[in-house]
Amino acid sequence: SLYVSEYFSQSAQKLSFYSWYGNAKLFHFHVPEDTVLLRWLLQASRGKGPECTSMEITVHFRHGAPPVINPLGTRFPANATVRPSYNISITLGSAVQNTTFVNVTTPAAGDWFIAAHLPEAAGRIEVKGFSTPCPYMFQADMFVLRLTDMPVLEPGVPMSHTVVSPAKPLHVKVFVPKHASGMRFQLSSCITSEQRACSVRVLLGSITLPQSFQRSLTCTGSINCSLALDSPPWEKWLQIMVESLGTANASVSLEMLASFTVCRPGSTSSFLNFISLNQSQAGARPGAAGSAAPAAGEAPRNASGQRGSCLQSQPVVREDLDVVSVRYRLLNGPSVPVTSLSPTLLVLNLNSGMDSGGSLVVNLLLNKTSVSLANATVAACVSAASPVLSLNATHNCSTAFSQGYPLSVSTSSGEAMLIVLYPQTDDWFLSLQLLCPRGQRDCAGAEAKVTVFAYLTPCFNDCGPYGQCSLLRRHGYLYAGCSCKAGWGGWSCTDDTKAQTVGTQNLATLLLTLSNLMFLPAIAVAVYRYYLVEASVYTYTMFFSTFYHACDQPGVAVMCIMDYDTLQYCDFLGSVVSIWVTILCMARVKKILKYVLFVLGTLLIAMSLQLDRRGVWNMMGPCLFALVIMVTAWVHHGVKRRHCYPSSWKRWVFYLLPGITLAFIAISVYAFMETNENYYYTHSIWHVLVACSVAFLLPPRDKHKKPWAWSQKLTCRYQICQNDREELYAVT
Question: Which of 67, 85, 160, 466 could form a disulfide with 488 if both were Cys (CB 3.0 to 4.6 A apart)?
Fold first, then answer.
């Protein structure tokens, strides 16, 4: 056999501490057909700075869809199916780099996903630029060994082969036809080159993670051995590997045979399906209802004529709505007939390659008046690759190489729901059958009507009222995840273990909004001292900070008067400009120069905030530049007057020193103390401290200006003016 090795690589990604699925870095690979060996090369590294410490990286693997992970141990939504992902841990200790290999023999072809992340996030809010986080990098490369001429085992045709040695196993493949209800693999005429009884092991199927259902068969001696499989995967190549368990120098000759049992499906004819499809598309077109009436009456008679079939197939139309959003529509109506003779089958197509990044929701609703037996139950099973064609009371819902998801509805419990998180790329099947407690004879002639709603959605229930559904992207692949708020957690933000109460949410909103009213004293001081431009800036800041925090709340106490991004930008702009004009006002430069610096600085601040809104230098840059101007002006005033400026010790003790102290405390709280848990009161303290420091730091008014005298300013007098100039008119 000819083996070909291939290598696939993706660029390294910077890892993040985990708080929601968006923090996990996803790698998407495609394993080609006839691959006999898959090797992952995982490379992790960290920076060399003192802020870099030992770290454990968790890496998850899954075939067919992104891995479903739960590092925080939160609860999943009710009716959701969760199977733990296969994961390994990579530790970065004293070494700055770690290389790990993961081998998978006979892997399943198709999409494979790797997700990597750091431990749980600490929840501290870090100001960009104040601290340098340690970079942790991760890269995944894939090596595959592929057979270019893998022998094909034809169904029903015996094939003779030779296993050369235990080190060189034999690989063959067989194609499973559609509607195959069973497969039987038989091995015979097994003999070694030394004319002794052989010992071989046969592995059927491919390895899939997190769970692998590869079937093993050990044959010893020359007698025939066989293995029967129920519900093999339809329209797929099935790999078979035979390896010798004998001595190293002995070859093994054997004969293989694969046979299939194919059932005859019963369904409405394609012509009737075509009429139903045209009717649904035509809507209220004249004559459409009348033309479809005979078809509706013929469908039951056609189905009754197919009672000898092993399944009843119902036509389903896939309707793409948006990205990772699909609705499945039954052509014969939302209700499907379910009997005990054979299962009713619905095919849900999730083969586009872009459907595995959402959640598949299947909802069953039993029409209780349609069931004549009180104790009858409609058993259902949702499975991928192949349907479950034998539903019984044990209800294990398993196929040859996978485990399905069971459902059931009855007269006592008429509704059932199933949520499949990140369904694998494949054809999914919904099988339904009527079961009776005393046996299928009691159900003869009985029929149940079950309404089926099936759809694919990016996030189940749109993450609820305390979550936000985000569409994530890795190269060309799109998938969705929920980002939870107000202490809620879980895959769909349904875990209320750490959730904030409504009272706490109202308190947080009141603190963050009403704390901005502390700017009122600063505005009053500015107006009293004739600093009207500064007072206008403080009013602007107070207004937009109040309504930005009213809109920024994670819970139910939210009010947005305009777009969130606009409110955030105006809040950041007002905060930085307030600091800018306050320090320039303290500099006591000439008015014309002060107002020029006001306008020019505001324009530059607006530009820098548009480039990087959360950068620390957007605040520190204008502050430092304004402080340089202020210190230069104060030195100039001191040299000119030949004494310290400001000259009054009362000004220093009662105004400047308290204002500077409040400003430093505010910066310390803002930069080093804020976390996700204490944000609502630490940030409120920041509002109060900044507003109070502004009131203390504003300089006194100019000496030549008198205080506001409302009786003089707001006068109401009449003055009669008389123009004594004579006007000359020219008469022509």
Answer: 466
Q: Over 70: is that where the pLDDT of 394 sits?
A: no
Pair 452, 330: CB distance under 8 Å: yes
C-beta separation of 425 from 65 below 8 A = yes
State both tokens at 255.
């004969």
Q: What is the DSSP letter of 662?
A: H
The 8-class DSSP code of residue 461 comes to G
Contact, 588 vs 633, CB < 8 A? yes
C-alpha radius of gyration, the chain, whole number: 38
- In this prediction, residue 690 has a pLDDT band, given cuts at 50, 70 and 90, of very high
Q: Taking a C-beta distance cutoff of 8 angstroms, is the pair 380, 406 a contact?
A: yes
- Alpha-carbon distance of 404 to 381, in angstroms, equals 6
DSSP letter assigned to residue 397: -
**Tokens standing for residue 716:** 């109401």
Joined together, the tokens standing for residue 71 give: 């590092």
Instruction: Compute the distance between CA of residue 728 and CA of residue 710 in angstroms, rounded to an integer.
Output: 45
Which tens digit of pLDDT belongs to each residue from 273-297? Answer: 544 545 544 444 333 333 333 333 3
Structural domains in the chain, CATH included, are 3-147 (2.60.120.380), 159-262 (2.60.120.680), 312-457 (2.60.120), 502-697 (1.20.1070)
What are the C-alpha distances in Å from 139 to residues 56, 59, 370, 394? 15, 11, 57, 45
Residue 714 reports pLDDT greater than 60 = no
pTM, rounded to two decimals: 0.82
CA dihedral 186, 188, 192, 193 (to 10 degrees): -120
Q: Give yes or no for residue 37 having a pLDDT over 90.
A: yes
